[in-house]
Design brief:
The chain is mainly α and 271 residues long. 73% of the residues lie in helices and 1% in strands. Strand 1 and strand 2 form a beta hairpin. Helix 3 runs parallel beside helix 6 and helix 9 packs across helix 13. The C terminus is likely disordered.
Length: 271
């Protein structure tokens, strides 16, 4: 009995240590955002909290950049699901020549580093007039979210029993009717998990936003970098901006964590 209690306490202790190691950078960032500039880099935990850093950060171009990030992330997530979910269903249910090759080529788009596509994208966007636009940024995010949607949802659709779709066919539903009314509702947890991952990847992007935007479509991560100036780093505004960018994703993930966990677990179930 004593050994069992000791093992339980040991697991709790290890869990607490791991949580502290993982969360300590984020917690320190939160503390920095409330520190006055006079002791922003101090290591002491005692200080008088202030909201001045947030007030200064949320002036100028940062609110507009925050809106650009939100628009581009939501738009790219919606478009990626609209295109990728039907494609994943076809790859999971239909058999055709070159099916594996098509799936591998889709996955190959995620294998190259983003910098490899920088010059082609930059030139194409310059000629098409998409430079420094939210729509152009959303399209860029679709290019690397699409492979994630297709490969993730392919596993979810493969876990749906084919017999349920065959029953829908017998009742008069077509192929896409069975997809819309049978397969898609059963794969809803996976759809929610995939949407969350797509949104987070788009929201946290810095590289493409830095290269393809200037002022009209600047995103929040790029706006935070602008707080680093030649005269010095505005650490208080940087910390406040970082917390502001982190908070929406954290709150959204906590609200839908049940769908995220159930969706990721369901993806491992095979028919």
């Amino acid at each position: 009995m004593n050994n069992r209690i000791a093992r339980v306490w040991l697991r709790y202790a290890i869990t607490v240590v791991l949580l502290v190691l993982v969360l300590s950078p984020a917690l320190w960032l939160v503390l920095m955002s409330f520190r006055p500039n006079s002791d922003i880099l101090a290591t002491t935990l005692s200080f008088r909290p202030t909201l001045r850093n947030y007030a200064e950060a949320w002036t100028g171009s940062f609110p507009a950049s925050f809106g650009h990030s939100l628009s581009a992330s939501i738009g790219s997530t919606a478009l990626s699901l609209l295109v990728g979910v039907p494609a994943a269903y076809v790859l999971a249910r239909r058999r055709f020549r070159g099916q594996r090759q098509v799936a591998m080529w889709i996955l190959a788009t995620r294998m190259a580093p983003p910098i490899a596509f920088t010059i082609p994208f930059f030139l194409a966007y310059t000629y098409s007039g998409l430079i420094d636009t939210v729509a152009g940024l959303a399209l860029i995010y679709v290019t690397f979210n699409l492979a994630l949607v297709i490969w993730t949802m392919k596993g979810f659709f493969a876990a749906v029993p084919r017999s349920l779709e065959e029953a829908a066919w017998i009742d008069g539903a077509g192929v896409w009717g069975a997809f819309a009314w049978v397969a898609l509702p059963l794969a809803a947890p996976g759809l929610a998990a995939t949407a969350i991952l797509c949104f987070i990847l788009s929201w946290n992007d810095f590289f493409f936003a830095l290269i393809l935007t200037r002022t009209d479509a600047m995103t929040a991560p790029v706006a935070i970098v602008n707080f680093m100036q030649y005269a010095g780093f505005e650490w208080g505004k940087i910390a406040a901006g970082g917390v502001s960018v982190m908070l929406p994703v954290l709150l959204f993930t906590m609200l839908v964590r049940r769908y995220l966990v159930s969706g990721l677990m369901a993806g491992g179930i095979k028919e």
